[in-house]
Design brief:
Mean pLDDT: 76
Number of strands: 0
Radius of gyration: 29 Å
Low-confidence stretches: none
Number of helices: 3
Oligomer: single chain
Strand content: under 5%
Structural class: mainly alpha
Shape: flat
Length: 101
């Protein structure tokens, strides 16, 4: 008594992958802030470049990561196979006594 039967329509929760309202609002707010910033980003980089060229280059390189994938993040698909197997690993541990001084 008090429990839902299996398959009851009211026993379902939020669907898998669905965002709750606060998460959805937070993502929307951040998205709006980023969109407002994108229109002035090159002008901002130029201003930073005048004062601190090294910092401007650092920022430009960090932004570049969002347009070009890093080599380690690129998947290699094809017939590349490594057919080397480790046959045996032997580890010798020798106890060496240190004389007391």
């Amino acid at each position: 008594m008090g429990k839902f039967e299996k398959g009851h329509t009211l026993s379902k929760g939020r669907p898998a992958g669905a965002l709750n309202r606060s998460t959805e609002e937070m993502k929307l707010t951040i998205s709006r802030a980023v969109n407002n910033t994108l229109s002035s980003i090159s002008k901002d980089l130029e201003e930073i470049k005048k004062r601190n060229p090294e910092r401007a280059m650092e920022l430009a390189l960090r932004l570049l990561e969002y347009t070009l994938p890093k080599l380690k993040s690129v998947d290699i698909n094809g017939s590349l196979q490594v057919d080397q197997r480790i046959q045996q690993i032997t580890i010798n541990i020798n106890k060496k006594e240190i004389p007391n001084e």
